[in-house]
Amino acid sequence: MASVDEIPLRKIIHVDMDAFYASVEQMDHPELKGKPLAVGGSEKRGVVSAASYEARKFGVRSAMSGFAAKRNCPDLIFVKPRFERYREISQQIRKIFFDYTDLVEPLSLDEAYLDVTVNKKGNPSASLLAKEIRQRILDEVGLTASAGISINKFIAKVASDYNKPNGQKTVNPQDVLEFLENLDIKKFYGIGKVTAEKMYQHGIFTGKELRERSLEYLQQHFGKSGTHYYNIVRGIHLSEVKPHRTPKSVGAERTFSENLTSEVFMLERLENIASELDKRLKKHKIAGKTITLKIKYSDFVQQTRSKTISYFISDKDLILETAKELLYQEKLENSVRLLGISLSNLNTEKKAKPVEEKSISVQLKFDF
């Protein structure tokens, strides 16, 4: 059992923009405010990238087909995504973050972790800092954000969803265990639908029930992930905020306006995708050893085929030849709506020593 002195106490803020892509579109096009909006897709095909809160009331979600989204919400308005604009806004928001700390770890264009244990404002209250950051985003950018504040990244991430949209939730150290015990298991960040269903089958519906399971039990039924689940439900998550996150893969993909029925029709598309991937690799000076071909069929079933070679590559022609080889590896199961190529096992990856996360049962005391 570790003593309180052995636990790295941090003040972590997780900032998550509210319906980011859709909110940017509503900000730039006032006529769309208050209306159900989907970014990406169309009523006949394609996939929704983001949905406004007005659309979410009808069950419209990201990754949903445009057809299903329109069926759920007949008045749904589709707009094309403008990623350059979203990146521009994201950079404005990150500049605000850096006014408070240099320990900023972006997860995507619309969310980031901030370690404000020691901050540029000299403010000991992470909760007040989060409130100030959210207000500045609203005043300077015009968008609302939600935030979670706690002792580590995991709890801050979970907490940021608690009072969405345009709210924040602080989980003080002494309240961590109670907060996690009362949480529905599907609200735990990192526990997806499949794992949640498996936990339900084991009678685990809340954090309390998860905490009652022994380490041996969780390892037996959930493998290596069992140790992670055992730790997080006890508020143990030692991952630091990493300002420079190294990508684990680089890829490019395309969704087609019409389904493709033959490998022959896909070769030209693969060349275009490989060209886009080539640009990204050259821009970041990245090479890798594992090439993965992603295939999404017309029935939305997804398949990946991978090949690992013994040396690093970044050359478009080599990547394309391997992607073609993977395409012809086995017969297609259906017509194809999307193809993608990604490169992983990169030359940027560093082998890190595993961190041992010790079990604790002490009550933390830390002024938030």
From TrEMBL:
A Gene Ontology cellular-component term: cytosol
Gene Ontology molecular function, alphabetical: damaged DNA binding; DNA-directed DNA polymerase activity; magnesium ion binding
Gene3D superfamilies: 3.30.70.270, 3.40.1170.60, 5' to 3' exonuclease, C-terminal subdomain, DNA polymerase, Y-family, little finger domain
SUPFAM superfamilies: DNA/RNA polymerases (SSF56672), Lesion bypass DNA polymerase (Y-family), little finger domain (SSF100879)
Stretches of the chain forming a coiled coil according to its record: none
Extent of the signal sequence: none
Main subcellular localisation: cytoplasm
Compartmental location: Cytoplasm
Keyword terms: Cytoplasm, DNA damage, DNA repair, DNA replication, DNA-binding, DNA-directed DNA polymerase, Magnesium, Metal-binding, Mutator protein, Nucleotidyltransferase, Transferase
Leading EC class: transferase
Active site, per annotation: E111
GO BP terms: DNA repair; DNA-templated DNA replication; error-prone translesion synthesis; SOS response
Keyword flag Metal-binding: yes
Note describing how the cofactor binds: Binds 2 magnesium ions per subunit.
Residue ranges constituting the UmuC domain according to the UniProt record: 12-192
CC cofactor: Mg(2+)
Residues binding Mg(2+), per UniProt: D16, D110
Keyword Hydrolase: no
Database matches in PROSITE patterns: UMUC
Biological role stated in the UniProt entry: Poorly processive, error-prone DNA polymerase involved in untargeted mutagenesis. Copies undamaged DNA at stalled replication forks, which arise in vivo from mismatched or misaligned primer ends. These misaligned primers can be extended by PolIV. Exhibits no 3'-5' exonuclease (proofreading) activity. May be involved in translesional synthesis, in conjunction with the beta clamp from PolIII.
Family affiliation: Belongs to the DNA polymerase type-Y family.
Subunit structure: Monomer.
Protein name: DNA polymerase IV
Organism: Pustulibacterium marinum
Gene field: dinB
